[in-house]
Each structure stands twice: as structure tokens, then as C-alpha cells.
Write a structure and sequence with these properties.
There is one protein chain. The protein has helices spanning 6-33, 37-65, 69-81, 90-122, 127-150, 155-172, 192-221, 227-230, 232-251, 257-277, 281-296, 298-308, 315-344, 346-363. By secondary structure, the protein is mainly alpha-helical. The chain has two domains: 6-172, MFS general substrate transporter like domains (Growth Hormone, Chain: A), CATH 1.20.1250; 192-366, Growth Hormone, Chain: A, CATH 1.20.1250. It starts with 5 loop residues before the first helix and ends in a 7-residue tail after the last helix.
């Protein structure tokens, strides 16, 4: 059977579009549900509450039933994508985000496991390109959603359109996959190397979450930037994620994964330290871009290593382990940065993130990336 990477790459882009559109819909969602900012934060926690158990368990399904889990999980994501648009209260929004989070976690593991399987079958690397398309999808979804809202489109129309895109992608990923011939072991041993990969991924995701969520606040509160300028912080970070992951796809063919990951960690350290010392937006915004470029290499390299290092019967569970541990870091990053910022200032929090990036660089030569 001929293996094509196009359907799963399209899935990554559509996946990013969903979360980019959702981020742009947060203001209208808050107004429609009548919740406070604090209550909205509580509702958003339900995304993580749904994602984590789904991530931890769906890998077993991938190992048992093969890539048939991919189109089913994307179809479930399409069905749940529109649910938050009907929420009119805190309870309804929380319930909708719990379901959406579970579907998102399942799809996340399934698409990464599929790319890892393609890499193993073709002996070629696609993971950086896949993650670059996810980041590009986030930008496309956010800009498209904002434009649609400006033209008068509501939440149902925006998320309904995204749901249709996801449904088409799910259909494109359908194939008559047989069950895996190799039986998965009933009791799995999570190796130390796999946990190490997941821990380093958590550090990298902590850096990602910290920059994404706190760069605009830093520019506005510390440097006095107007809202239009402060938005360039997370904007520069998002562009850096696309550019970095596309360059990783090219660089991966020329240098080893360990060198690429370690160099990326060092670049991120430099960007974060410059940002922590910046006295103007003209210096801080490029610094966030540099920090984003460096950390952008981590997730595709670590996810790919988890999948390539496992047998067919354990690939899904291996990817799920690293994905789940990494997502824990993404969830923990913003509150950790907030706590440090409260105690010692937001500049100190960027120094902390630089320390996390340095730990990724130090760990890179010790990881089993090939």
C-alpha cells in the first residue's frame, strides 16, 4: 500500500485552525456566556481535564487497531468543535470544553503517531513539517476567525466552518487499515528513556506556554506598549514557530537531531535573556521571535523520536506518553510564570524560562533521538 503524507499533514493544519479560531473567539464567547475573566479561566481548565486522560489512553487504541483511530478521532473532533458555540452559561461552556478537550487529546496523539509511523516506514522525517503546518493553521484560524467576526459572522458560523474542514480531513485520512499483526503487550513497561523524552518535552512546552501567554502582558505592562503593539509579542512568537519548524525540516537532513535540539535550546536561552533585559519593544519583540525559533524544534524532534524508537505494537503508547508529559508542561508553564512574576517580577519569570530552555539544551546529547 502506497503511503502518502498529505492527508495527515492536512490534519495538522486543520487541527491548528481549530485552536487559532477558538482563541480569536474567546471575547465573544465571554460575552455570550456572561462569565467573568476568572470564570472563563476555570472553564478553559476543562480543556486540559478532557485532554490528558484521552492522550494517556488513546495510544493503546492506536496500537491495537492501527491508524483507523486517526480518521475516527478527527471525526470526533469535528463533531465536538462546534459545541462551545452553543454554550450560554459557565456550566455549558465547561461541559463543551471538556468534550472538545477529550477529542483534541485523542486526535493529537493519533496524528503524531501516524506521522511517526510514516517516518518509520519511509525512513524520512516529516514531523517538523507537520508541526510547522499546525502553527501555520493556528495563524490562519485566528486571522480567518477575526476577519469573519469583523464581517458579522457568529460563533456557530466560524466553528461550524472549522468542523466541516475537520470532517473533510477525517474523510481524506480514511484507508482500509488492518489491525496490527503484532499483538501489543498487555502490560507495558514505560522505559526510562521515554520518560526522559517526555520530561524534556514538558520543559520545552513550559517555555512555549510562557512566551505565548505572557509576552503581550510584558510588552504592555513593563514597556508601556499600546494594545496593537503588544499583540506583536505573541504574533512574532507564532511566526517564529512556523519558520523554525520549517527550517528544522530542512536542517534535520544536514545535522543530527541532538545537535539541532541543543542548538535550538541555546538560541531560545539567548532570546529569553535579551527579552528579560529589554528596555524597548523594538528589542523585546525580536527577542521573543528568536526565543520562539529556538524552542520550536523541540516538540517535533521529541515526538518523532518517541515514535521511531518503538515497535509497531507500542508506537501509539510511546507517542502518547511523551505527548501527555509534554502537555503537562504546557499547562504548568503559564501559572508558574505568573507565580514568579508575582513574587519577583515578570522579567525574572523570563529568566526562569531561559533556565528551562538551557535544561533542554543540556539534555539534548543524552536523549535517544535516533
Amino acid at each position: 500500500m502506497t503511503l502518502s503524507r498529505r492527508p495527515v499533514l492536512a490534519a495538522f493544519c486543520a487541527f491548528g485552525m481549530l485552536w487559532g479560531a477558538w482563541a480569536a473567539l474567546l471575547p465573544s464567547t465571554q460575552r455570550a456566556t456572561g462569565v467573568s475573566k476568572g470564570e472563563l479561566g476555570i472553564a478553559l481548565l476543562f480543556v486540559g481535564l478532557g485532554s490528558l486522560p484521552a492522550m494517556a489512553s488513546v495510544g493503546l487504541l492506536v496500537d491495537r487497531y492501527g491508524a483507523v483511530v486517526l480518521p475516527l478521532s478527527l471525526a470526533a473532533l469535528a463533531g465536538s468543535a462546534v459545541l462551545p458555540s452553543f454554550a450560554g452559561s459557565l456550566l455549558a461552556l465547561s461541559a463543551a470544553l471538556l468534550v472538545l478537550g477529550a477529542a483534541s487529546g485523542a486526535a493529537d496523539v493519533a496524528i503524531n503517531a501516524e506521522v511517526a509511523a510514516l517516518e518509520a516506514a519511509t525512513q524520512r522525517t516529516f514531523m517538523p513539517l507537520a508541526h510547522a503546518l499546525f502553527s501555520a493553521g493556528v495563524i490562519l484560524g485566528a486571522v480567518g476567525s477575526g476577519t469573519a467576526r469583523q464581517l458579522g459572522a457568529g460563533r456557530v458560523a466560524v466553528l461550524g466552518t472549522i468542523a466541516v474542514v475537520l470532517a473533510v480531513v477525517a474523510w481524506a485520512n480514511r484507508r482500509p487499515f488492518p489491525r496490527l499483526a503484532e499483538a501489543a503487550p498487555r502490560r507495558r513497561q514505560i522505559g526510562r528513556a521515554l520518560v526522559f523524552l517526555g520530561a524534556v518535552c514538558a520543559l520545552a512546552f513550559c517555555v512555549e506556554g510562557g512566551i505565548e501567554n505572557w509576552s503581550a502582558l510584558f510588552l504592555e505592562r513593563e514597556l508601556g506598549a499600546p494594545p496593537a503593539v503588544s499583540a506583536l509579542g505573541p504574533g512574532a512568537y507564532a511566526v517564529a514557530m512556523v519558520a523554525g519548524r520549517l527550517s528544522a525540516q530542512w536542517l534535520n537532513r544536514r545535522v543530527g537531531d541532538a545537535l539541532l535540539l541543543g542548538a535550538g535550546g541555546c538560541v531560545s536561552v539567548l532570546g529569553l535573556l535579551v527579552a528579560s533585559l529589554a528596555g524597548s519593544t523594538a528589542l523585546a519583540i525580536p527577542a521573543f521571535f528568536v526565543a520562539g525559533i529556538g524552542v520550536s524544534f523541540a516538540a517535533p524532534l521529541l515526538f518523532g523520536a518517541a515514535g521511531r524508537g518503538a515497535s509497531d505494537a507500542e508506537r501509539g503508547a510511546s507517542v502518547a506518553t511523551v505527548t501527555t508529559l509534554g502537555y503537562l508542561g504546557f499547562l504548568a508553564g503559564p501559572p508558574i510564570v505568573g507565580a514568579v512574576a508575582e513574587a519577583a517580577g515578570i522579567r525574572a519569570s523570563f529568566v526562569l524560562l531561559a533556565g528551562a530552555a538551557a535544561a533542554v539544551a543540556v539534555a539534548a546529547p543524552r536523549l535517544q533521538l535516533r
